[in-house]
Specification:
CATH superfamily of the largest domain: monomeric porin ompg
Order of helices and strands: HEEEEEEEEEEEEEEEEEEEEEEE
Structural class: mainly beta
Mean pLDDT: 83
Shape: elongated
Number of domains: 2
CATH architecture of the largest domain: Beta Barrel
CATH class of the largest domain: Mainly Beta
Distance between the termini: 52 Å
Helix content: under 10%
CATH topology of the largest domain: Porin
Amino acid sequence: MKKLLSSLMVLLATTLFVQADRITLSDGSVINGTLKSVADGKAVIATDFAGDITVATDKIAALNTTAPVQVATADGNKLSGAIETPEGGAPQMAAVALPLTSVKYLWTDGMEDPTLPQPRKWDAEFYVDIAGKTGGNTEKFNGTVGVTANLVGPDDRLKLYASTTYERQDSVTSTKKSIGGADFERKIAGTENTWYVRAELEHHTTNGLKLREELAIGYGYYILDWEHTKLRARVGAVGRCRKYVDNTHNDDFAVEAAIHFEQDIQEWGKWVTDLTYQPSTERLDDYRILHESSLDIPILFGKPLSLRVGISNEYNSKVNSGVEGLETNYFAKLVYKFK
């Protein structure tokens, strides 16, 4: 009986080993796992001991898959089958040489074909930031709630957002601010060049501003557009209408220059920075500067709940007498993301 059980265990282990894909690297090391995909010159391999591993395809010397895979080569051909590497030879599919450097995409059964036009997909997040302070004769409350939704396609992106902030000190409302807007951008002929249109509406009482309306259109360029790193520059024209609490108003045109940077930090976080400069075309001393930097930290790994900490600055050179032009906020938002 013991010999039978031992034989079954050996057979099971041998079967599991045989079913695993075998990836041999140029330095001689071997990875046993499941080849999930290849894109942008990188292969993703699922392993039992370290989860998903990413390896540059030019570092792979030999590859053997146990199940058929789908391949799209750089010259536009599509192949299907298992990949084998003869002893001392190069990877091949159906006895045809298949240099991995020629593989543009590789995917397994059940995955979407990355060569086909990808459908637009929605993702969204809801966040809340509440803080309070009581001490002596002072009582202070600050709260912000907001929602952001993104419709993302292979060549375009629509962002919708809205938020409201309320501050009260000693039973007196000190800040009441609401912002809503939309931002749409589209790549030009599939390149890193884009055009964009943006609209925003703000009601704000802190700096004497009652209502602000903006409509912008312009050109953008992705300096970096990698999977985990993005750096985008924009320049455009802005039509602005600003109404103040003293019933005065200022309608003008401005130009805007903006930088957006985001960086995934390994598997656990994301750093995002936005900086925008808007000078009036009529008066260079009438300008607006916006800045926000934030870091997302997951509260529970594998769950869509995270803590976003950061700082935001808004400077308006034209404000009512006695009102500070610079407004700085530190925040710690609880963010729930869903798709």
